[in-house]
Automatic annotation (TrEMBL):
<dbReference type="InterPro" id="IPR008927">
    <property type="entry name" value="6-PGluconate_DH-like_C_sf"/>
</dbReference>
<keyword id="KW-0963">Cytoplasm</keyword>
<feature type="domain" description="Pyrroline-5-carboxylate reductase catalytic N-terminal">
    <location>
        <begin position="11"/>
        <end position="102"/>
    </location>
</feature>
<dbReference type="GO" id="GO:0004735">
    <property type="term" value="F:pyrroline-5-carboxylate reductase activity"/>
</dbReference>
<dbReference type="GO" id="GO:0005737">
    <property type="term" value="C:cytoplasm"/>
</dbReference>
<comment type="similarity">
    <text>Belongs to the pyrroline-5-carboxylate reductase family.</text>
</comment>
<dbReference type="Pfam" id="PF03807">
    <property type="entry name" value="F420_oxidored"/>
</dbReference>
<dbReference type="InterPro" id="IPR028939">
    <property type="entry name" value="P5C_Rdtase_cat_N"/>
</dbReference>
<feature type="domain" description="Pyrroline-5-carboxylate reductase dimerisation">
    <location>
        <begin position="166"/>
        <end position="271"/>
    </location>
</feature>
<feature type="binding site">
    <location>
        <begin position="14"/>
        <end position="19"/>
    </location>
    <ligand>
        <name>NADP(+)</name>
    </ligand>
</feature>
<dbReference type="InterPro" id="IPR029036">
    <property type="entry name" value="P5CR_dimer"/>
</dbReference>
<keyword id="KW-0560">Oxidoreductase</keyword>
<feature type="binding site">
    <location>
        <begin position="73"/>
        <end position="76"/>
    </location>
    <ligand>
        <name>NADP(+)</name>
    </ligand>
</feature>
<keyword id="KW-0028">Amino-acid biosynthesis</keyword>
<dbReference type="Pfam" id="PF14748">
    <property type="entry name" value="P5CR_dimer"/>
</dbReference>
<keyword id="KW-0521">NADP</keyword>
<comment type="function">
    <text>Catalyzes the reduction of 1-pyrroline-5-carboxylate (PCA) to L-proline.</text>
</comment>
Length: 274
């Protein structure tokens, strides 16, 4: 294979739900892919608009033709039935990118062929607004050229990071893949606490939403570590310190989060084992 950078060319997107739709919108906006064909009996609302406008093509079954890139964006539970028809779309130079949790490169290769270049990726739901982050693992047939192309495509939804071991994708899933749900729960519980302390439900939720969103944006924009930002907000013997004494005490947030991430990692591994 030459060292000349590859372009995405024709892309087959198997699965047009939220994540598939987010990726397709990002590619279209950035011009990082060529023609995009979506296979899904019921594509999501955002993709339906693009299909109706003629920006994407669509079918309910995999076409009997080859594509440059195949993106697997179906639910892990459906992969066993979704993969066999995809083999007709995979040629010697096709790149396969899977965003299905718990589906290993071996499982994909068993269906599509041992020589296929496979990248496992774990994006998260902020990809819907271009603010996601994606953790990736490159299979044994993935060259630097293929890796660069996969990163170019996936970065349409936010930053891309790579792990050296496939098992680490389970940890990525537990931290960032499932992580938005943890943050949403934080906002829920913060609002509920505000309501319990006397605020109206609407005001408590507004304060919680904007506090979580603003703090997250500050973390992204700041060069300081979260621990430094936390200390900057915390006056000695002040109100924040009183709250942190509870959250950082024995049995507080840190050990609870470790147990939560471990549970998610364990479940991801179970899915990988079938």
């Amino acid at each position: 294979m030459s060292d000349k950078p590859r372009t995405a060319g024709r892309v087959l997107l198997l699965g047009g739900g939220n994540m598939g739709g987010a990726m397709a919108r990002g590619w279209a906006e950035q011009g990082s892919a060529g023609a995009i064909h979506v296979v899904d009996p019921q594509p999501g609302e955002a993709l339906r608009a693009s299909i109706e406008a003629g920006r994407l093509t669509h079918s309910t079954a995999v076409p009997d033709e080859r594509f440059d890139v195949v993106v697997l964006a179906v639910k892990p539970q459906t992969m066993a039935t979704a993969l066999p028809p995809v083999r007709a779309a995979v040629g010697p130079q096709t790149i396969v990118i899977s965003v299905a949790a718990g589906t290993t490169t071996k499982t994909i290769a068993d269906h599509l062929g041992d020589g296929v270049a496979i990248v496992r990726a774990m994006p998260n739901t902020p990809a819907l607004i271009g603010r996601g982050i994606t953790g990736c693992f490159a299979g044994e047939n993935v060259s630097q050229q293929v890796r660069d192309l996969a990163e170019s495509l996936l970065s349409a939804c936010g930053p891309v990071v790579w792990v050296a071991k496939e098992a680490d994708i389970d940890v990525v899933t537990a931290v960032s893949g499932s992580g938005p749900a943890y943050v949403f729960l934080l906002a829920e519980t913060l609002a509920a606490a505000g309501e319990a302390a006397g605020l109206t439900p609407e005001l408590a939720m507004t304060l919680a939403r904007h506090t979580v969103a603003g703090a997250g944006e500050l973390m992204v924009r700041s060069e300081d570590a979260p621990a430094v930002l936390r200390r900057n907000v915390t006056s000695p013997n002040g109100t924040t310190q009183a709250a942190l004494d509870v959250l950082m005490g024995e049995g507080g947030l840190a050990p609870l989060m470790r147990r939560a991430v471990e549970a998610a990692k364990r479940r991801a591994a179970e899915l990988s084992e079938g």
